[in-house]
Design goal:
By secondary structure, the protein is an alpha+beta fold. The chain folds into 2 domains: 195 residues, PAS domain (Beta-Lactamase); 204 residues, Hypothetical protein af1432. The protein is 62% helix and 8% strand. It contains 16 helices and 6 strands. Strands 2-1-6-5-4-3 form a 6-stranded antiparallel sheet. Strand 4 and strand 5 form a beta hairpin. The longest helix is centred in the first third of the chain and has 56 residues. The protein binds fe (ii) ion. Fe (ii) ion binds next to loops.
Length: 483
């Protein structure tokens, strides 16, 4: 049991080591390959793998064929040598030099890769030699490395310093059980080299065909794998951007096909849930806006003179907002900001808010603090924090003489500057306990007079144009109809 665990640990260590090696090797690849497309990587690594495997197989095949050819050539030499030895016994015994010479001549002339053929006697003295001057010389038939030895005494030796012959084959001549000498012949590499060249040529052609097929197959494999991956990638992008419209195509019935099928199901579920969530969010937003409108109406309703004020300010401000190019979302936000702009008045005592006479300085101070109260109320809900600037600063003046912070020019938030125009116009055109409402012409004249002083000139210009166009300030008193 312990042995099995040790073996498993070793295998695990080997696998981890190999994985680390592959990761390191991949990291060492040029940046261009690492950042290339998946299709290129699959094709590249498949071609490398196929080419490497084919090359190793080709080299092994060439090596095996070389050995086979060498063996066949030596066999042929042995066969020729034995054939001469079988025929030379009687001629050697009878000193038939002509017969021996004929045997040597025939063997030499019919085998181009035999540089010499000789017959030596028992004392290794050359009796017959294809190279005539060698006759009578002593031949060292045991020189070189013994390559092979047969049971009948035939030896094949690899010569140490081959000039014309690489192998020397020596076959004993035996007649009537008496050793009379040896047939000695040399074999060179000419036939071997020619045969090896032919084999190498054919193997290399096969290698080239395999490499071409590899390129084609790797390209096909890359396309086969990439298609569903690209489809999935596009699907994930669509899912991420929330624009999932169609089911992904399934290209195969394998793991990638299953993955695509599962993705389609998951995508459909997400789209369904997203739709439900969107509906809930829309309902929630509607409910939220309704609550805001009710709260704004409730604040306005405390004072019969300001009844519907916030809703009217919203209508007037939206005229400006639309004209200066606010987006749909910004206009929605501006509308809510208008409804909230006087929310701080909820803390203003009735004695001040509803006072029919002019306010004392202290009371006026308290009244002015409604912007800070409003900001404080909104700060308690993070989702309402975006309405704080417009609530806090809608009484700032363009020349910096407003309240509460004395902001001037572009430092005043845009929504606050817009609300300031609508708020003032609606206040001037509404009855107050201490004065009658101004006519719209008088109010517009006053707004124009205060352009650049209390209000942003560009907003005043837009407001005047829009008022002349729409005359929307004549709001029905029934605010609840609006909210
Ligand atoms: Fe206000």
């Amino acid at each position: 049991m312990a042995g099995q665990h040790t073996f498993a640990r070793r295998i695990d260590t080997c696998v981890r080591g190999f994985s680390r090696f592959v990761r390191s090797a991949l990291f060492l690849l040029p940046e261009k390959i690492r950042s290339a497309s998946l299709r290129f990587k699959i094709a590249f690594f498949t071609i490398i793998l196929l080419t490497g495997t084919s090359l190793i197989l080709c080299l092994m095949t060439i090596q095996i064929m070389n050995n086979y050819i060498l063996n066949e050539i030596i066999k042929r030499g042995e066969s020729v040598g034995k054939s001469i030895a079988a025929s030379a016994g009687y001629s050697l015994l009878s000193r038939d030099l002509l017969g021996l010479d004929t045997l040597v001549f025939k063997a030499k002339s019919s085998n181009s890769d035999m540089p010499y053929v000789a017959i030596v006697d028992a004392n290794t003295k050359v009796i017959v030699h294809s190279d005539t001057p060698m006759i009578g010389e002593t031949m060292h038939i045991t020189r070189g490395r013994l390559f092979r030895e047969s049971g009948d005494g035939t030896t094949v030796r690899e010569l140490p310093n081959p000039s014309d012959a690489v192998f020397e084959i020596s076959c004993p001549i035996v007649f009537m059980d008496k050793a009379l000498g040896n047939v000695v012949l040399g074999m060179n590499r000419s036939v071997l080299i020619e045969a090896q060249r032919k084999v190498a040529d054919r193997v290399l052609i096969i290698f080239a065909i395999i490499a071409l097929l590899g390129v084609f197959a790797s390209s096909l494999l890359a396309s086969f794998l990439i298609k569903p991956i690209r489809e999935l990638s596009a699907g994930v992008d669509e899912l991420k951007s929330g624009t999932t419209k169609k089911r992904l195509r399934i290209f195969s019935r394998d793991e990638l096909g299953n993955l695509t099928r599962n993705f389609n199901e998951m995508s459909a579920q997400i789209a369904d849930q997203r739709e439900k969530l969107g509906k809930y969010a829309h309902d929630l937003e509607d409910a939220y806006v309704s609550i805001v409108k009710v709260v704004a109406a409730a604040i306005d309703a405390r004072d019969s003179y300001t009844h519907g004020h916030s809703a009217r300010v919203a209508r007037l401000s939206l005229l400006i907002g639309k004209e200066i190019g606010l987006s749909r979302d910004e206009l929605a936000e501006l509308e809510i900001a208008c409804l909230f702009h006087d929310v701080g008045k909820i803390k203003t005592p009735d004695s001040i808010l509803l006072k029919p006479d002019k306010l004392s300085p202290a009371e006026y101070q308290e009244m002015m603090s409604h912007v800070e109260h409003g900001a404080s109320i909104l700060s308690r809900a993070p989702s309402l924090a975006k309405y704080i600037p417009s609530t806090r600063h809608h009484h700032e003046w363009h020349n910096g003489k407003g309240y509460p912070d004395g902001l001037a020019g572009d430092d005043i938030p845009l929504f606050a500057a817009i609300i300031a125009v609508g708020d003032t116009f609606d206040a001037m055109t509404s009855d107050r306990p201490y004065r009658k409402a101004l006519s719209e012409e008088e109010a517009l004249k006053e707004i124009t007079r205060m352009s650049g002083i209390q209000f942003r000139p560009d907003l005043v210009r837009v407001f005047i144009e829009q008022m002349e166009k729409h005359r929307v300030h004549k709001m029905p008193q029934s605010v609840l109809k609006l909210v």
